[in-house]
């Protein structure tokens, strides 16, 4: 499949996370008997299924949750794994996509906001390494921030990978020619990616413009206890 | 950071203490086998038992089959057990990652060696996928590098349901008859009604004389033994009782403290720790042999006789309709004669001072208010010796009068001074006024002169 010049296409690959380790983000949000358990972590989908049950048991025991949580946790993890596996056999198109990844997290007392560019084509990228370095460089003392950052990055990559898969499916469905399909992928892709392609054209330099420096800088805030409580209350209200 | 972590190996022991100093990484010259080092360690070599008692904060015990452990090196057994990091399958999951996981987990554990670290604690703080973290954690756990000598009591300390406080003193307390089988003594947290054997929930009624507990229903129905009446029971809230259970230890501390400090309840409360002074007083009074342990400072027979009299006299007042009065009477009885007197005097004088100030401002009959208050206080002191009280009362009155007069004089003085000030100001203003008048007139005359001069000049000019 030769691709025309404007939108460079790669041959479709099998779906996988565009990172070195094919790990998927798993998010849990379960409520049993008024007790709420929210969690987010990274999972290796090649672990045997027995791992799921073991992990759930340990979590329930360590966090002293009600035993009613156990089947729900197992079910949630397994359903997310199944979703991942359903995408796995399919094709995924990745163009030359450099996407902005945004971080906007609040972990215990730390609030971190950041934005940076990530190359989707780099299948050796490692969000964990990035998170570790970020925390070390910013001198974050709370050790729970690292995993949260890595998870956020992975989640966004996962979303985009899924989008690519669905766009591939729609491509195959639509019987239009390649040009129309081209139209498809760019329009589906985040508009930001295209803009960035313009940025890297011969006219501009690789060095970022000064006025954009602040936009791409990490912002780190340490909250006091009251602010944490206020944020939690706001979340609960909005959730309701 | 370059300090070695000295290890001492006892020849026959099964475990080795490792000094958990603040430095995290030992110097790189440390050989991977520790047995050759005999750096002196201030700690005693471990006992031959398989799990040594909970270690000091500075010493972490590690089983001897794990002595290969080193912060910087990876042993062959590690690569055997956790091949995923070492087979080069993925670029990022390499030995350095394994070292990062392993060292972070061990560091986390050694921060608090007496507490068992859970897998969830660890995986929340490490960046990576939970499967591999779990495998590293299990490996370290299995090899005793973490959670080895931790105490197993993770849960909250179990409540002191406590042995009976009174069991040691108790023979004279009659155990109730079989009709009301023993509900436990007051140290237990759950109360079962003696009559109907149901669990007391909200409040129960306790009779101290025969030490029986009745639930609210039985009490209302009058379901108690012969010889008891309604008044003998006191109401006990379950919630209060639950947190106010006095363990034996606390009672011992309390008695000790009373012996040392006598009537200083603040110090007693401090000594007992965890109880307010009111709690101590209340509990102390409830103890049957409290008086014996008191060792009253002026104990002679009159006093002790008087005290027992007082205790008996106490009960009628305890039923007094005014709870505050009852409380005050009770406390004064407890605290002793002179102290209550002194307290009453001090209270009266302060009150009268406060009243004076308000009265002089208002200018109304402060004396009336004072006398009313004093009468209240004096009726409060009924249980004390009345003669001394009257004398104190008279003294207080005369002091009061003097104070009032002083204050009146002072106030008149102040007002006089202020009036004088105002008068002076007036005078000054008048002077200033006069002066300005004079100046104005001068200016007027000068103006006139100037005008005349101008006229003269113009005439001259016209002529010439």
Largest sheet features of chain A:
3 strands, antiparallel
Order of helices and strands of chain B: EEHHHHEEHEHHHHHHHHHH
Name the overall outline of chain A.
globular
Output the radius of gyration of chain B.
43 Å
Task: Give the second-level CATH assignment, the architecture of the domain at 62-149 in chain B.
Answer: Orthogonal Bundle
Q: Which structural class do the helices and strands of chain B define?
A: mainly alpha
N-to-C CA distance of chain A: 51 Å
The overall number of domains of chain A is 2
Sketch the topology of chain A as an H/E string, one letter per element: EEEHHEEEHHHHEH
Specify the CATH homologous superfamily of the domain at 62-149 in chain B: Winged helix-like DNA-binding domain superfamily/Winged helix DNA-binding domain
What percent of residues of chain A are in strands? Answer: 15-25%
E-strand count of chain A:
7
Average per-residue pLDDT of chain A, rounded, comes to 74
Which consecutive residue ranges of chain A, at least 5 long each, have pLDDT under 50?
A: 1-9, 179-191
Query: Describe the biggest sheet of chain B?
Result: 3 strands, antiparallel
- Which segments of chain B are poorly predicted (pLDDT under 50) over 5 or more consecutive residues? 1-56, 152-189, 296-308
Relative helix content of chain A: 40-55%
Query: Can you count the beta strands of chain B?
Result: 5
Note the total helix count of chain A: 7
> What radius of gyration of chain A results from the CA coordinates?
21 Å
Describe the fold and architecture.
- The complex is a heterodimer of chains A (240) and B (464).
- With 240 residues, chain A is of the alpha+beta class.
- Chain A folds into two domains: 4-16 and 90-225, no CATH class; 24-87, no CATH class.
- In chain A, 46% of the residues lie in helices and 19% in strands.
- Chain A has a three-stranded antiparallel β-sheet, sandwiched between helices.
- Chain A starts with 12 loop residues before the first strand and ends with a helix.
- Mean pLDDT of chain A is 74; it is low at 1-9 and 179-191.
- Among the domains of chain B are: 62-149, Arc Repressor Mutant, subunit A (Orthogonal Bundle); 188-241; 246-291, Arc Repressor Mutant, subunit A (Orthogonal Bundle); 321-351.
- A three-stranded antiparallel β-sheet of chain B has the order 4-3-5. Chain B has a two-stranded antiparallel sheet with strand order 1-2.
- The chains are: A alpha+beta (240), B mainly alpha (464).
- Chain A binds chain B through residues 20-21, 23, 41-44, 47, 51, 54-55, 58-59, 61-63, 124, 126, 128-129, 131-132, 135, 143-144, 146-147, 149-150, and chain B through 90-93, 100, 104, 118-121, 123-132, 134.
- Chain B: It holds the Pfam family SWIRM-assoc_1.
- Chain B: Keywords: Chromatin regulator, Developmental protein, DNA-binding, Nucleus, Transcription, Transcription regulation.
- Chain B: Residues 167-183 have a biased composition (Low complexity).
């Amino acid at each position: 499949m030769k691709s025309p010049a404007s939108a460079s296409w790669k041959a479709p690959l099998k779906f996988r996370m565009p990172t070195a380790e094919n790990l998927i983000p798993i998010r849990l949000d379960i409520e049993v008997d008024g007790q709420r358990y929210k969690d987010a972590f990274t999972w290796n989908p090649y672990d045997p299924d027995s791992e799921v049950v073991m992990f759930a048991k340990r979590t329930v025991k360590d966090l002293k949750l009600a035993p009613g949580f156990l089947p729900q946790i197992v079910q949630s993890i397994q359903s997310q794994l199944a979703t991942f596996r359903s995408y796995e056999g399919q094709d995924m198109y990745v163009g030359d996509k450099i996407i902005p990844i945004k971080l906007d997290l609040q972990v215990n007392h730390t609030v971190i906001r950041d934005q940076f560019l990530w190359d989707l084509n780099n299948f050796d990228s490692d969000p964990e390494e990035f998170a570790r370095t970020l925390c070390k460089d910013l001198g974050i003392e709370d050790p729970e921030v690292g995993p949260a950052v890595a998870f956020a990055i992975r989640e966004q990559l996962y979303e985009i990978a899924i989008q690519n898969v669905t766009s591939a499916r729609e491509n195959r469905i639509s019987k239009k020619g390649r040009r129309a399909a081209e139209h498809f992928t760019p329009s589906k892709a985040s508009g930001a990616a295209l803009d960035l392609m313009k940025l890297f054209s011969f006219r501009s330099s690789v060095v970022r413009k000064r006025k954009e420096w602040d936009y791409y800088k990490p912002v780190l805030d340490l909250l006091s206890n009251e602010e944490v409580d206020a944020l939690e209350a706001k979340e609960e209200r909005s959730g309701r | 950071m370059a300090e070695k972590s000295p290890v001492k190996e006892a020849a026959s022991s099964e475990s080795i203490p490792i000094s958990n100093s603040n430095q995290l990484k030992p110097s790189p010259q440390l050989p991977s086998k520790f047995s050759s080092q005999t750096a002196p360690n201030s700690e005693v070599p471990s006992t031959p038992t398989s799990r040594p008692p909970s270690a000091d904060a500075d010493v972490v015990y590690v089983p001897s089959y794990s002595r290969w452990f080193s912060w910087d090196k990876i042993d062959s057994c590690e690569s055997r057990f956790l091949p995923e990091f070492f087979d080069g399958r993925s670029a990022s999951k390499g030995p350095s990652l394994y070292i990062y996981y392993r060292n972070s987990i061990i560091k986390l554990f050694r921060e608090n060696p007496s507490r068992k670290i859970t897998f969830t604690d660890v995986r929340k703080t490490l960046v990576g996928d939970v499967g591999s973290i779990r495998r590293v954690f299990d490996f370290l756990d299995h090899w005793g590098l973490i959670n080895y000598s931790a105490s197993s009591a993770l849960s909250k300390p179990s409540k002191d349901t406590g042995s009976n406080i009174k069991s040691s003193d108790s023979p004279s307390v009659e155990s109730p008859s079989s009709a009301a089988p023993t509900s436990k003594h007051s140290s237990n947290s759950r109360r079962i009604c003696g009559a109907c054997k149901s669990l007391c929930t909200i409040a129960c009624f306790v009779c101290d004389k025969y030490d029986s507990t009745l639930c609210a229903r039985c009490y209302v129905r009058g379901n108690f033994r012969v010889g008891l009446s309604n008044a003998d029971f006191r109401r006990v809230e379950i919630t209060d009782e639950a947190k106010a259970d006095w363990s034996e230890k606390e009672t011992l501390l309390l008695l000790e403290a009373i012996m040392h400090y006598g009537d200083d309840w603040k110090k007693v409360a401090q000594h007992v720790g965890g109880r307010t002074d009111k709690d101590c007083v209340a509990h102390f009074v409830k103890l049957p042999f409290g008086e014996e342990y008191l060792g009253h400072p002026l104990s002679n027979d009159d006093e002790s006789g008087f005290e027992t009299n007082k205790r008996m006299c106490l009960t009628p007042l305890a039923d007094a309709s005014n709870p505050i009065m009852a409380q005050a009477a009770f406390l004064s009885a407890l605290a002793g004669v002179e102290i209550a007197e002194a307290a009453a005097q001090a209270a009266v004088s302060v009150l009268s001072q406060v009243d004076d100030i308000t009265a002089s401002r208002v200018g109304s009959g402060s004396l009336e208010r004072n006398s009313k208050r004093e009468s209240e206080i004096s009726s409060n002191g009924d249980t004390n010796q009345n003669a001394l009280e009257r004398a104190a009362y008279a003294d207080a009155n005369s002091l009061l009068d003097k104070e009032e007069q002083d204050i009146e004089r002072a106030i008149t003085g102040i007002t006089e001074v202020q009036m004088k000030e105002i008068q002076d100001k007036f005078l000054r203003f008048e002077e200033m006024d006069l002066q300005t008048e004079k100046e104005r007139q001068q200016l007027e005359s000068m103006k006139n002169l100037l005008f005349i001069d101008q006229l003269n000049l113009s005439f001259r000019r016209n002529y010439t």
